[in-house]
Specification:
The complex is a heterodimer of chains A (277) and B (323).
Chain A (H helix, E strand, L loop, with lengths): L1 H9 L1 H18 L1 H4 L31 H37 L1 H16 L2 H12 L3 H28 L2 H8 L4 H37 L11 H8 L7 H28 L8
Helix pairs in contact in A: 1-2, 2-4, 2-11, 4-5, 4-7, 4-9, 4-11, 5-7, 6-7, 7-9, 8-9, 9-10, 9-11, 10-11
Chain B lengths: L4 E13 L10 E13 L3 E5 L6 H8 L7 E6 L2 E2 L5 H8 L2 E4 L13 H11 L5 H14 L16 H13 L5 E5 L7 H18 L2 E6 L2 H7 L2 E6 L2 E7 H6 L4 H8 L40 H5 L5 E4 L2 E3 L7
Parallel strand pairs in B: 3-8, 3-9, 6-7, 7-8
Antiparallel strand pairs in B: 1-2, 1-4, 4-5, 9-10, 10-12, 11-12
Helix pairs in contact in B: 3-4, 3-5, 4-5, 5-6
The chains are: A mainly alpha (277), B alpha/beta (323).
């Protein structure tokens, strides 16, 4: 934690990233107090209004206040993104790590399976899973995870393969270390960087993907505010730019924030970049 | 020096399987091919040969970091290959390795004290306070100050890193250390320091070394006996004095003549071998050296010569010896 605070003070990007993400998390927690209007309240008299003093972000074609919808939508979007990425990264890393470390036939079989999953168009696979399991938030998240983990497995596998060839792994073996110890002590700490970068890059992606599924009716049902659904909603009303811009900016900002944090964490974990003050 | 055999290598083979192609008709790369020799206690056994001839593979196979295809390695009379997991782990305490590239052999994410403590944790020896003492002691032994303890490998120079690697190998009080090109990656002045260090440690702790190198001068400085390797085979073993004065195998002769000499006797002619080293995956029949040997005869192409003792502890594998 002390290191974290030092990092916060010395690394500008990390500070910006943390601020953005913390702000969004606070917004999501206190969404009900912050939203100026009811996000579901339709007001046809006020529909498609550009940003103004009354509606800061304007209104959509049903006259709903976009600011309120962005604020309330943060709950679903952010948690969906975080949960998917965390679960997928954990499963994928373990899977890929084992495949890469064991190698040989095991590796071949494991990776062929991962590639099989990867070979399906992600959206269609997620839709099929969603339809088969029945549309619910839980099933949509499951579908997202199933689609997302092979990427982590592949990255992790290649990183593990390159690291396990290093002499320090060999020397650990010469010292008599068990496979588990070699993996957890020598290999995994050196792979964390790559996975964190991938995961933070992926958060924005997963939010968008979740949104696509919601748009298709698999995630959160339509009236609920959700960033991705709002963006796709707004695409029909091209001239009313504010409808997609603000939720789009929200997604962008959280993705950037997560990336900055990821960069910072990687630097924090890498002794070569760790500066002494 | 008493002549107690510490390591005995018997008919050791290490083959790697490759895809069968025109260049590799058998689908096998014989990296180590029927190698036998003994290493005596407290000696330094040099192993020289050009790149890719299987020196490192041999070193690692002796330590059972690679599983031998055939043959066995005995340490102090115990067949290392026949040991179960627990016994192998405990015998690893006695057998250690120092690697060529000091940067690659230290985990970049660990501090020096963590690196040296690791072997003691793995083998659960000493309590935490004793371990700290042992770390200080080891750093002292390899000539590093204690202020290095909290540093990371990238903050040290190559020579310092190699000293850390040596300290780690020493942490378990080993009897036998494989130095796999342990000084090749260092520059000349540091090389000398590390060699002297290894020499002092040998005196102090009664160590036995297998010293692998492609640098004949380095081997000359440190070794008691030297084995010369060519394409997975050992072609000559002799004490260094004998090897340097009266080598018998044509490959050894050409190797020795390639050492740059300074001074009056530098006129001695160089034996320059024609051609390149054959592809080890498609090695020549018979004596593997016959394609480049200046004195090869028909017999060399057909039959592989055995390693025979020509005089006391001088072994050579060559058909043209009697001439």
């Amino acid at each position: 934690m002390k290191k974290f605070m030092k990092m916060y003070r010395t690394n500008l990007f990390f500070a910006v990233g943390t601020t953005i993400c913390m702000t969004w998390i606070l917004i999501a927690i206190f969404a009900n107090f912050l939203a100026p209007y009811d996000p579901l309240l339709q007001n046809m008299a006020e529909k498609l209004k550009p940003p103004s003093g009354q509606h800061w972000f304007g209104t959509d074609r049903l006259g709903r206040d976009i600011l309120s919808r962005v604020i309330v939508g943060s709950r679903l979007s952010i948690s969906a993104g975080l949960i998917t990425v965390t679960v997928a990264a954990t499963i994928g890393s373990i899977y890929g790590g084992i495949a890469g470390y064991v190698g040989g036939v095991t590796d071949n079989i494991m990776m062929r399976f991962a590639e099989m999953v990867l070979a399906f168009p992600a959206l269609i696979l997620a839709m099929v899973i969603g339809v088969v399991l029945g549309p619910s938030l839980y099933n949509t998240l499951l579908a997202l995870v199933i689609v997302a983990w092979p990427t982590y497995a592949r990255v992790m596998r290649s990183v593990v393969i390159s690291i396990k060839e290093n002499d320090y792994v060999e020397s650990s073996r010469a010292l008599g270390a068990s496979n588990f110890r070699i993996l957890s002590n020598e290999i995994l700490p050196n792979t964390i960087g790559a996975v964190i970068i991938l995961a933070t890059l992926d958060i924005g992606n997963q939010i968008l993907f979740f949104s696509t599924l919601s748009f298709l009716g698999l995630g959160s049902p339509p009236p609920n505010p959700e960033w991705g659904a709002m963006v796709s909603d707004g695409m029909d009303n091209f001239l009313q730019w504010w409808i997609c811009t603000f939720p789009g900016l929200a997604i962008l900002s959280i993705a950037i924030g997560a990336n900055f944090i990821g960069d910072g964490i990687r630097d924090l974990l890498d002794p070569k970049l760790r500066k002494e003050f | 020096m008493d002549e107690k055999v510490l390591i005995s290598v018997k008919n050791l083979d290490k083959y790697f399987s490759l895809r069968k192609t025109k260049d590799c008709p058998q689908g096998l790369l014989k990296a180590v091919d029927n190698v036998s020799f003994d290493i005596y206690k407290s000696e330094t056994f040099g192993l020289v040969g050009e790149s890719g001839c299987g020196k490192s593979t041999l070193g690692r196979t002796i330590l059972h970091l690679l599983k031998p295809t055939n043959g066995n390695v005995e340490f102090d009379g115990v067949d290392v290959g026949a040991l179960n997991k627990t016994a192998l782990k405990s015998i690893r305490r006695k057998l250690q390795i120092v690697f060529q590239d000091p940067s690659a052999s230290l985990n970049p994410r660990k501090r020096i004290d963590q690196i040296i403590r690791e072997p003691m944790i793995i083998h659960k020896i000493y309590d935490p306070i004793e371990r700290e003492k042992r770390i200080d002691e080891l750093l002292n032994v390899v000539g590093l100050g204690q202020y290095h303890k909290n540093r990371y490998p990238h903050e040290l120079s190559g020579g310092q890193k190699q000293r850390v690697g040596i300290a780690r190998a020493l942490a378990l009080n080993p009897e036998f250390i494989v130095c796999d090109e342990a000084v090749s990656a260092l520059d000349v002045s540091v090389q000398a320091q590390v060699i002297n260090l290894l020499h002092d440690l040998q005196q102090e702790f009664d160590l036995t070394y297998l010293f692998i190198s492609h640098n004949l001068n380095v081997v000359y400085q440190i070794s008691d006996r030297v084995a010369v390797m060519y394409l997975g085979k050992i072609v000559e073993i002799a004490t260094y004095g004998e090897l340097y004065q009266s080598s018998l195998h044509p490959y050894t002769k050409s190797l020795l003549s390639s050492i740059p000499q300074v001074g009056e006797n530098s006129k001695c002619e160089k034996i320059i071998l024609k051609g390149d080293v054959p592809n080890p995956a498609n090695a020549p029949s018979g004596c593997k050296f016959h394609t480049r040997c200046p004195i090869a005869i028909e017999k060399c192409k057909a039959i592989a010569p055995e390693l025979v003792e020509v005089s006391n502890k001088h072994f050579v594998a060559c058909h043209r010896l009697e001439k």
